[in-house]
Amino acid sequence: QEQETFTDKEPMTGEHRPSSAFNTPFWTTNSGAPVWNDDSALTVGTRGPILLEDYPLVEKIAGFTRERIPERIVHARGASAKGFFEVTHDITHLTCADFLRAPGVQTPVIVRFSTVIHERGSPETIRDPRGFAVKFYTREGNFDLVGNNFPVFFVRDAMKFPDVIHAFKPNPKSHIQENWRIMDFLSHHPESLHTFAFFYDDIGVPQDYRHMDGSGVHTFTLLNKAGQARYVKFHWRPTCGVKNLLEEEAIRVGGTNHSHATQDLYDSIAAGNYPEWKLFIQTMEPDHEDKLDFDPLDVTKTWPEDIFPLQPVGRLVLNKNIDNFFAENEMLAFNPAFVVPGVYYSDDKFLQGRIFAYGDTQRHRLGPNYLLLPANAPKCPHHNNHIDGAMNFLHRDEEIDYFPSRFDPVRHAEKHPLPPRILTGRRTRIKIEKEDNFKQAGDRYRTFAPDRQERFLCRIVDGLSDPRITHEIRSIWISYWSQADRSLGQKIASRLNVRPSY
Ligand code: HEM
């Protein structure tokens, strides 16, 4: 029984296994040694005990026990797909970004959609913002537009991000998401009202990932060849339209398939029904900001489209499913710090915090050389000496690992423009001047049709009906919503003791 014969020892060529990392038809250890029995452990006699020298068993179990890496602290649940971005409109007067150099230019992309709060295996029907992260593999390095489906965020200072996430995450004692914690924390943050006007709206539960908008959320800066700077906001609009799940549908869909959005994305692409979004920008002359009654760099604000119209730029087409979920989703790493010449950050102090956070968490989550992994590495030539450390798997034979050197012809890249604005100011920890917390939330509510307003109201009342929410907290929320829209505030107040039913 122990005798095995190897009939086919010839390595299998790439032709036979075109999409696999492996090139032999027989089983081996990771070091390439043939394994003649992968069914039974090496034992003393037929029953055991197992010998410690059973290397194939030890390697197999040790690999298995390390199969998972830490999940993302936020956006753990996600699905990704690949495709391309194509420029459709010339914006070279606004930016010198090479990937936007002319209509028709295509750039390969990988996109990851996600929910924010819950774990890697959580249902995709929960009320939560959705992540919409796009990595453009440009000729000038990767540009990551790491956005959400809502165009605004709950708080505006990076110092508050861990708190808002903790408030939304499950209670550390019970491990249950509890409204009283969310309402308690955000009662200190009236700037959250505008984002609640998205969260409690129907779009709080998108039908799937294909039928939702995307937004870069923050204000970024575009720079043209002459060094002129304009503020910019990025927006994705799906060509198949925005669709949502109302409460009953979400319960039905989520109860049937907790991965329905991942499945919808995968199946649509496999069927050749490629999801597509148009990219639009809004631009603003930096001087214009003084004329506004809100701060355009404030991440809790949108820019009114009648003053700052949407300008078309290109289209995003997802026409290829990923080959491996672990390599192209779990080990995928986006970073809003990754910009390209012609696109820059703004002084938005929420965005500034993000510039630090992503690389930091990814060095912890994936290891210091995570940017060498195929999904994360640039597809253009690159060159530096920052790659020693765990898992530098590049073959290298250079003798020069310092810069500059007269023995190495590598030189600085060509200079590209930075925002010309002069930065001055005293060190301070302070709120922004133009908070304007209520107007845009009220404006948005007033655009809803009556049935949509009613559903919105029910969700607010439901959220505030948690018995652990105190009278004080409820009163604060009623006051906030009243300042956004007087009649909405009154309705919330009069309904609060009534449990709404949909
Ligand atoms: C993921 C931090 C604000 C969108 C993450 C991750 C961290 C993080 C640590 C996990 C990254 C990883 O493990 O690869 C922060 C901090 C923020 C902030 C500190 C504020 C100071 C935002 C905002 C947006 C956003 C405003 C929306 C524009 C995303 C998305 C992902 C993500 C889409 C998932 C990326 C992926 O699919 O891998 N964030 N975040 N974040 N964040 Fe943020």
Automatic annotation (TrEMBL):
Keywords: Heme, Hydrogen peroxide, Iron, Metal-binding, Oxidoreductase, Peroxidase, Peroxisome. Its EC number is 1.11.1.6. Residues 5-24 are annotated as: Disordered. GO terms for molecular function: catalase activity; heme binding; metal ion binding. One of its GO terms (biological process) is response to hydrogen peroxide. It is an enzyme of class 1 (oxidoreductase). Its cofactor is heme. It is found in: Peroxisome. One of its GO terms (cellular component) is plasma membrane. Residues 6-18 have a biased composition (Basic and acidic residues). It catalyses: 2 H2O2 = O2 + 2 H2O. It comes from the Eukaryota. Residues 28-411 form the Catalase core domain. Its main location: other. Catalyzes the degradation of hydrogen peroxide (H(2)O(2)) generated by peroxisomal oxidases to water and oxygen, thereby protecting cells from the toxic effects of hydrogen peroxide. Belongs to the catalase family. This is Catalase.
